[in-house]
Request: fold
Amino acid sequence: MIAALIIVFREVFEAGLIIGIVLAVTRTVPHRNAWIGGGVLAGVLAACVVAAFAGALSNLFAGMGQELFNAAILVIAVVMLTWHNVWMARHGAELAGELRVAGQAVVEGSKSLLALAVVVGVAVLREGSEVVLFLYGVIATGGDTAWGVTLGGLGGLALGLMICLLTYFGLLRIPARALFTTTTILIALLAAGMAAQAAAFLEKANWLTAMDNVVWDSGWLLSDASIPGKALHTLIGYTDQPTAMQLTVYLAILLITFVLMRLYGAPAKAVVPARG
Amino acid sequence: MSRSRTLSKAVIFAAVAALLPIAATSAANAQAATEIQLSYKDKKFDPAEISAPANTPIVIKLKNLDAKPMEFESKTLKIEKVVAGSSDATVNVRAQKPGRYEFVDEYNEKVARGALVVK
Ligand SMILES: [Cu+2]
Reply:
């Protein structure tokens, strides 16, 4: 039971952190619960589908289907997160401001919500499919400790939910003005970390072999397999043995986000008259 | 406004253009890898210890003979791969320094253990 609890918790941990951040980011946006709830639900359903076809998925692309699938969904999340940040740079003030003119702002707000719902769905899908596979495997063989495993699994889910709430309420303690800046930086780092992870998956699939030298090894200081290491891994993309390619991708995403926010963000808002 | 649009398009284009050659060279760079067969049954790896030469990429061909899925995991080798019940998986490992690298089935971490010895 304890083993099941640990395994499920480990998988749900990352998704919990991401959902907590997304909840904090969207706290002033109307209907956000429906969007994020929808994202979670879609993620769970997709996870079940992925788990059911895990064998077939794995066999695609000369046995590298799983890696490429993971890389692909991470790329989707990176695009959505970056787009959200750029979008918020432009419309964040309108949404947070006093004159939150209903109508347009809300409609536009849900566009950004859709992006974040996709990110939530993708996070749930990725971690959830492993949980589903694990629980399915245990139940399929039946017998011995199916009950214990179910209890452990539920315990792990509950702990994951707790991480989500802790992240959310932790972020809410930050004053409203600083919260926007904090979450913008957090989302940018989250996206950069996911992009580097996607690069790592492509490296494992041998689709990316250039610049595969390990730049440093800080495993002696903080292993990325430990719980604090894993939290940093999700939040800022910490890896104890990054390759040159992973670092490059990481920095490139940060740079692209920064440039896009400058170009589409504040200046554009001053020039463009009120839209619709 | 239109100028900033064009500029940012240029930035995206430059980023994509910069990454393309990397993708193109990746196929050409693949070195000959050491291939190792490994099977998994009744929560045991067979053989429990595998070995490979240093500084060459390694490909582990893993057969999960159990009906249950397993997760082939090695913290030191940075491997984490779910293998469905009764199916095969291919795991690419980048060239390693000499040493002993342990791996487990994460779902049965206590009993299902093995190691890759690189020399
Ligand atoms: Cu996982």
Summary: Confidence is low (pLDDT under 50) at residues 267-276 of chain A. Chain A touches chain B at residues 3, 7, 54-55, 58-59, 62-64, 66, 129-130, 133-134, 136-138, 140-141, 200, 203-212, 219, 223, 225, 241, 245, 252, 256, 259-260, 263-264, 267-268, 271-272 (CB under 8 Å). Chain A has ten helices and no strands. Residues A 11, 127, 130 surround copper (II) ion (CB under 6 Å).
